[in-house]
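Project outcomes to date are best conveyed with an example. Our students and postdoctoral researchers have been running inverse folding experiments weekly, and each run begins with a structure described purely in C-alpha cells. The record below, which covers 376 residues, was selected by the lab manager from last quarter's runs and is presented without edits.
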C-alpha cells in the first residue's frame, strides 16, 4: 500500500462539523463559559454561570447537605423536656436552647435516617395503644386486659376469644379507615420526599405511615406487625382488602378466592383442593412471623448503608425482636463519628432499655406531634 493510500485510512482527529452541536443549543443546565477567561477567575465565572441557569430547567441537581462537625453534643442520655421548653422554664432555658439546636441539626444534616416508630405516633388520632386509659372510650376496648387478644395461643384457644378478637379487629379496621395521619406522619413524609429517610420500621398496624406518603415510598416503610387494612388467606396466601362483614358472619372466614378456585376446578372435573381461611394481616405474639426473612433482609441492607441517625419514636420498646433490631442499628450508627441516637416519647425509657441501648444522645420527653414545629 502506497503512503498516499495509507493516509486515506487514518481515523479523523475531530468529528465532522455536521455532528458538532452549536454553542447555545445544548441541553446543559449551565450557560456556556467564556473559554478565554484566566484560570484564576474561572471559579467565580462558573458560580455566576450556575446562578444564571433557569429555575425551570429540566435538569435536577440533588442538593447534598454535608453534615458539619457538631459543635455541641449533649452528654449521654440527656433529657430534653419539650413542655419545660414550651413553658419557658428559666432554670433550664440555656440547656434547652442548646438541646433544641442539636435536635434541629440532627434532622437537618442527616441523610440516612432510620425511624423505629410505635403507637405513640398514632394516639393523637384516637387510635389507642395498650397503655391507654381504660376509663376512656377507646381504652375500654384496648387496655392491658385485652392485650391477651394479641396472643396467638389465647385468641385461637376457644370460640369466645376468637369472637372478641374479631370484634377488636373490626373496630381497629374501622378506626384506621376513618382517621387521618397525624402531623408527625406528615413530617416523616416530608423527610422521605427530601430523600433523607433510609427506612421507617413501624410497629403500628393502622397503616397510617403508608396513608401519609406517596406509593413510591412504600418500600421505605416496613410494617413489623402487619396492617389491619388487609386480610390474608393461610392457604393461597392472597392478601386483599380487609372485609369486616366476613368476620361478623364467620369466626374464621373461608377464603373467597380458594372457594372460587374450587368451583372452577370442580367444573373442569379436577379434584377438589383445600379451602383456606382468612385472617387479618397482622402478626400476633407467639406466632411465627410470615415476613421475618424479608425484614431481616431490609435490616441487612440498611446496616450496610451506614445510617447516620436513629429515631426511636412513640415506643417504649417492649418487643424483644424490635429491641434487638435497635441494638444493631445503635452499634452501626455509633461507629460513625457523627452518628446520632434520638429517643422521642412521652415517657422516659426504662433503665433496662437505657442499659440495652447503651447510648442515647438525646431523650426528647414529650408529645412527638410537637416535633415538626420545633425543628422547622
Ligand atoms: Zn385462599
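After processing, the design step wrote out the following sequence:
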Amino acid at each position: 500500500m502506497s503512503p498516499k493510500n495509507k493516509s486515506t485510512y487514518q481515523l479523523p482527529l475531530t468529528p465532522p462539523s455536521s455532528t458538532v452541536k452549536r454553542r447555545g443549543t445544548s441541553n446543559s443546565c449551565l450557560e456556556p463559559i467564556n473559554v478565554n477567561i484566566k484560570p484564576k477567575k474561572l471559579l467565580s465565572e462558573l458560580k455566576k454561570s450556575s446562578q444564571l441557569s433557569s429555575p425551570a430547567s429540566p435538569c435536577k441537581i440533588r442538593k447534598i447537605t454535608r453534615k458539619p462537625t457538631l459543635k455541641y453534643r449533649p452528654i449521654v442520655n440527656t433529657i430534653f423536656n419539650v413542655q419545660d421548653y414550651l413553658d419557658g422554664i428559666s432554670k433550664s432555658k440555656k440547656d434547652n436552647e442548646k438541646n433544641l439546636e442539636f435536635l434541629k441539626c440532627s434532622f437537618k444534616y442527616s441523610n440516612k435516617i432510620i425511624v423505629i416508630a410505635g403507637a405513640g405516633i398514632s394516639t393523637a388520632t384516637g387510635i389507642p395503644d395498650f397503655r391507654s386509659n381504660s376509663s376512656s372510650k377507646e381504652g375500654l376496648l384496648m387496655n392491658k386486659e385485652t392485650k391477651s387478644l394479641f396472643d396467638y395461643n389465647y385468641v385461637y384457644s376457644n370460640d369466645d376469644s376468637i369472637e372478641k378478637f374479631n370484634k377488636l379487629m373490626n373496630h381497629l379496621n374501622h378506626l384506621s379507615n376513618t382517621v387521618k395521619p397525624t402531623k408527625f406522619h406528615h413530617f416523616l413524609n416530608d423527610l422521605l420526599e427530601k430523600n433523607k429517610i433510609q427506612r421507617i420500621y413501624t410497629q403500628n398496624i393502622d397503616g397510617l405511615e403508608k396513608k401519609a406518603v406517596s406509593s413510591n415510598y412504600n418500600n421505605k416503610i416496613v410494617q413489623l406487625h402487619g396492617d389491619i387494612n388487609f386480610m390474608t388467606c393461610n392457604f393461597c396466601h392472597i392478601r386483599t382488602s380487609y372485609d369486616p362483614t366476613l368476620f361478623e358472619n364467620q369466626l374464621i372466614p373461608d377464603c373467597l378466592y380458594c372457594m372460587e378456585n374450587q368451583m372452577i376446578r370442580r367444573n373442569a372435573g379436577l379434584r377438589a383442593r383445600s379451602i383456606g381461611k382468612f385472617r387479618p394481616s397482622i402478626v400476633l405474639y407467639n406466632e411465627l412471623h410470615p415476613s421475618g426473612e424479608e425484614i431481616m433482609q431490609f435490616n441487612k441492607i440498611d446496616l450496610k448503608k451506614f445510617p447516620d441517625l436513629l429515631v426511636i419514636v412513640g415506643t417504649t420498646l417492649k418487643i424483644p425482636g424490635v429491641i434487638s433490631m435497635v441494638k444493631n442499628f445503635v452499634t452501626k450508627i455509633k461507629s460513625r463519628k457523627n452518628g446520632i441516637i434520638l429517643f422521642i416519647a412521652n415517657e422516659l425509657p426504662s433503665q433496662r432499655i437505657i442499659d440495652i441501648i447503651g447510648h442515647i444522645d438525646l431523650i426528647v420527653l414529650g408529645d412527638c406531634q410537637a416535633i415538626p414545629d420545633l425543628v422547622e
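The chain has two domains: 52-125+181-225+289-376, 128-178+229-282. Residues 233, 235-236, 238, 255, 257-258, 276 surround zinc ion (CB under 6 Å). The training component of this project remains on track.
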